[in-house]
Amino acid sequence: MIKVSNLTKEFLQGQEKTQVLKGVDLNIKEGEFVAIMGPSGSGKSTLLQLLGGLDVPTKGDIQIAHKFLNKMKEKERTIFRRKKLGFVFQNYQLLPTLTVEENIAFPLHADGKLTNEKSKLIHELIHSVGLEGLNRKRANLLSGGQQQRVAIARALVNNPTVLLADEPTGNLDRARAEEILVLLSRFHHEKKQTIVMVTHDIFAAGFADRIILFRDGIIDQVISRKDSDYATYLANFMA
């Protein structure tokens, strides 16, 4: 589903170049749930921005669903992003004065008027994320956990090939965070949704099939749920 080859990203700071990603190679299978972890400045958020087509690499290839994202022009990337990628952010990024239903429907307006089929899908997603009865409630009147549920439904409304989540539980307490992680895990298992999640929380990472640990712009370690030491690694990290 995702193939990253020799991915390099440099930023110019004054007269100096800072290399944030240093030749990263990464493969993510269709239907896989991957968590990316690492200290601040390790390159994990930069990688997610590149995967989302929000920025372009200095060097290297990003292939998603057999399409080279880095070879697209800006308009092509925008269309690809809208049709193939879903985004969930730490701060939700909802439109506060719009209702739950209106926020979820917002990405669909780029492709024209809402059809009966699309309206049905919105109501199915509202049910799927556990927000029945809140269709017409404004986003700014919801709790943090409810707002993140709206954000997840909005990210899924275009049936994205890949769901990208940037610290999706960062603003939530543990109980609300677990609700969101269980929800993402359910979509992963039931819908075979491919999910790439950046997180600083090992509890959140524990829901993923693999944990990819970044350090200094490179992949330092990969831990798979299938590995015999997966549980030990999580326990030691959380200790």
Strand line-up of the largest beta sheet: 6-7-8-3-9-10
Which CATH architecture is right? Answer: 3-Layer(aba) Sandwich
Count of individual domains: 1
Low-confidence stretches: none
| CATH class bucket | Alpha Beta
In helices, the fraction of residues equals: 25-40%
Structural class assignment:
alpha/beta
Tell me what the structure shows.
With 239 residues, the chain is an alpha/beta fold. It has a single domain, classed as Rossmann fold, CATH 3.40.50.300. It is 34% helix and 28% strand. The protein has helices at 44-51, 74-84, 100-105, 116-128, 144-156, 174-191, 202-205, 230-238, and strands at 2-13, 16-28, 33-37, 59-64, 67-68, 85-89, 162-166, 194-198, 210-215, 218-224. The strands form 2 sheets. It has a 6-stranded mixed β-sheet. A 4-stranded antiparallel β-sheet has the order 2-1-4-5, with helices on one face. Helix 5 (144-156) runs parallel beside helix 6. The longest helix is centred in the C-terminal third of the chain and has 18 residues, at 174-191. The two termini are 34 Å apart.
